[in-house]
Structure formats: structure tokens, C-alpha cells
């Protein structure tokens, strides 16, 4: 048997108003939490409050209100009041009042797991313990000894060997609200993009600006050419930005949520999408441009999208977006495949293969010029060991592989734009944005 104690007597210091009364989908936040608790299989529901408006809402749902006369004593005071006022002296769940997405189904899941062994029961996602947790009543005295703004984490750490972990994969159900802006975040769709090169980053940029949360994956040593407009750069630089949108390299999956909450794009090294073993996403986009499918499957997310050749819409993914320059660039296919790879770079002012720099041999790169430099035909751009690589045309260096990278013969290592506009080097290309538009169509059409 389980009692739910809703914690609703905080000061909302980061907001300077009672965040629990903020409206979400026509109701105050706290009302959603109360509804979820009341609709669950909990044997009783209490709420520890300090504001009369919260009390009035609770009473409409026949929730027992417990007035916190000393909310300034911190979270420990609310927890003590909960333990002291429950009638069912078995399991006690402490449910934060600002988590409206933790529905009765998830509450029931925790209760069912608690009933199996009557131990401390905690939600576990991305290698992290989350709230709400269920504590056996026998730990009452441990909680009564707490002081200040300290909650169940101390008890969890003290009895870690006894924890009953319940594994979840939907991170959004644990979203809470600390700032008014967090209300909008509750409804954001989560998109996972495999690859963080130029095209993938153009897609991420457009989706981020349209209100999606983005996670990106990369290989351990990306060979990105257009480094100034690719979020893959943060693998080397730890943090980078593209047109004002920031990304951060994340080594541990438990840090992903924190980076998302900071309104940045977490980028992790994960070649085989192992993150999907820990996390559900709304949309998966394979943006590696590998020209073949390296393991993406149509059932990996509600909406799966492949960019360019290598995917069949309706078989490998839900939709395919055309990446070949020309009349069909950015077009969405819901059946069939994108055009095959031509092997010829897109034409700019009549130039195709001439504008691309390739490695003359296996070896280590030493940059002489860098992205944004204006060059003339014959100018020395870089060295591969002792072999020179020179510009074949006049223009501006739009893309160049990272200094010190070990390359293989024939590998693309640079790109010269004959238009000569330096600003283009630091802006996502029209091709990337056209593809991003197709991705956005596929997502919105899918929902």
C-alpha cells in the first residue's frame, strides 16, 4: 500500500511567484499533478502546501491538505509533515508539485514495483535517479532527523545497496518547471540526429529554431570539412556554436538532460545509436550521408528519416529526403529512394571537382591556410606530411579538415568556394537548409 505526498510548499525562488499556479494546457501545474495522483492506484493522497490557492485546488479533488507553517525550513520540513500525517504506514511516495507529465500510469508503475519487495523504489533513466521516489515507512526516523533544504537523496545514498531501480526511457516525464520558459519545454519533441556534420547541423539548426529539442551523435574522430558550421566541432572543442545555436560535447549520458535544459544541443560519441537502449525519442534522423544504411531501422522511433541515398522510404525509414543538388533537392519521399550518388560535387559557378581538395596520400595534415582565407589558384593550402596541396581555383576556403588529422589518400579534405564570399564560410549552406526544410515537412506531416 502506498500513500502519495505532493510537495507544494516551496518558494519558487528562481521565479519570484508561485510556479505551481502557472497555467499549462488550461490548468495550473499543481492541478495536473493532483489529478495524476488521484487517478493512480495510491491508497491516499496528501499535499503539503503553503498557499491557500493550492489548498483550494487540492480540496476540490478530496486531497488531504497539510499546511506547512515553516516552509523556510526547506524540503526536509515538507517531508517530515508527510510522514507524520499519512494514515497508510507502508510506502510513502514524495511527488514534486511541478512535474505535470508524470502521469498516473507512471505512478502506478512505481507502485507496482514497490509492492514486489517493499524497498526504496526509485525511477532510473540515463544512469540517473529521479523523483518521485517511494520510501518504506520504516525510514520515518531517518527523515525526521533531516534539517534544512535536504530531501530523500541523503537517504538514498545512505541505503544505496537496497535500492529498487525502476528503469524508464522517456526523459520528458521527469521535466519540472523552474522558470516560466520551462512551460514551453514540456511539449517539445525530442529529436535524435545521427551525425553532426554540415548537413546534419543545418537540419539541427532549423529544427532547434522551430522549437525541437535536439541530441546529436558522432564518431570519435569526425573528419568534418565545414568545421565552422558543424556541431561535430565540439567533439574537439568541447563546445561550439553555429549561427548562435550552441552545442556541447557530452561524455556521459547522464549529462544529456542538463545540456538540454541549458538550451544547448548535446553531442555524444555513439556510432551505433546505443543511446536508444536508454532513451526514447520522438524522431530519429540518419544524417550521416553514408550513401548506405549502416543500421537505421524504421521502428527505432515513431518517426524515422533518412537523408540521401541508402534508404528506402517505408522500409528502412518512414521518409527519405533528397540530398542531390538540383530540382528535387529537399523533396520528401514516403515511398522509394533518393537519387543515387553521382560522385560529382555540386556545381558552383561552373566548377565541380576543381573546387574540392583531396588527400594526395596517407598522412598527417598541417594547415597553412584556414577556413575563411581568400586564395588564388596555385596557393599552398596545406601539407600532408611532405606533400603540398594547392588551390586549383580562385576563391575562399569554405571548408578544411582539422589541423593534425590523419587522412587517407583520396579523402576529401577541403572545399574552395569560387564565389569568394567569406560570410558563406560561417553560415549554413542553402543546400543544408533546403534539406532541413524537407526534414521539417516529414516531421510535421508525421505528427
| Total number of distinct structural domains | 3
Low-confidence stretches: none
Question: Can you tell me the CATH topology of the largest domain?
Answer: Rossmann fold
Q: Biggest sheet, strands in spatial order? A: 13-14-15-12-11-16-17-19-20
Which whole number gives the mean pLDDT? 95
GO molecular function, one term: nucleotidyltransferase activity
Pfam families: NTP_transf_3
Protein name: Selenium-dependent molybdenum hydroxylase system protein, YqeB family
Domain MobA-like NTP transferase: 5-158
List keywords for this structure.
Single_hybrid_motif, Spore Coat Polysaccharide Biosynthesis Protein SpsA, Chain A, alpha/beta, nucleotidyltransferase activity, Rossmann fold, 447 residues, MobA-like_NTP_Trfase, Selenium-dependent molybdenum hydroxylase system protein, YqeB family, 3 domains, Se-dep_Mo_hydrolase_YqeB
